[in-house]
Amino acid sequence: MKSLAIVVREDGYDKLLTPLAFAYLQGAEGTQVDLLFVNWAVRALTEEGAKGQVIQGEHAAQDGWVRQQVEKAGLPPDIYDVIQALKATENVNFYACSLASSIFGVNEDNLIPEASGIVGASWFLNEKAAKAEHCQYF
Fold it and tell me: Which InterPro entries does the entry mention (predicted)?
């Protein structure tokens, strides 16, 4: 596969880990991966938001255990460290949805340096998703 577009709409440690793992696996193989973070997930593209991700809901009490298991599996246990590892592949781009950014307080001042910018959803769909060989939605 040459290109993959991923739309990430859910936040929470475990909910972010899945699309980031797909991005890491494909990016490490040379696939161009573009991720658009929408809704609550856009907060993960700020340092505070990325570092503050926890498991929510019925599995919240297992947050520490899951992080240990993630580290045992060879991945960084912190979402921001995962984002940095993805960026280091030089094949992964992170985009913040402009509407979600305005709703959830993400701007150029608090956007992590690993992010490629704040873009409109239509731009992402036309320029990245429509041209990708495969699209995923989380």
Answer: DsrEFH-like, Sulphur_relay_DsrE/F-like
What global pTM score does this model have? 0.94
| Contact between 117 and 94 (Cβ < 8 Å) | no
> Tokens 């240990």 sit at which residue?
68
Confidence of residue 101 (pLDDT cuts 50, 70, 90): very high
Q: Please state, in angstroms and rounded to a whole number, the distance separating the CA atoms of residues 78 and 17.
A: 10
Domain residue spans of the chain: 3-137
The CATH number of the domain covering residues in 3-137: 3.40.1260.10
CA 19, CA 109: separation in Å to the nearest integer? 25
- pLDDT per residue over 66-95, tens digit each? 999 999 998 899 999 999 999 999 999 999
Long-range contacts of 104-113 (CB under 8 A, 24+ apart): 104/39, 104/40, 104/42, 104/43, 105/43, 106/42, 106/43, 106/45, 106/46, 106/49, 110/46, 110/47, 110/48, 111/45, 111/46, 112/45, 112/46, 112/47, 112/50, 112/80, 112/83
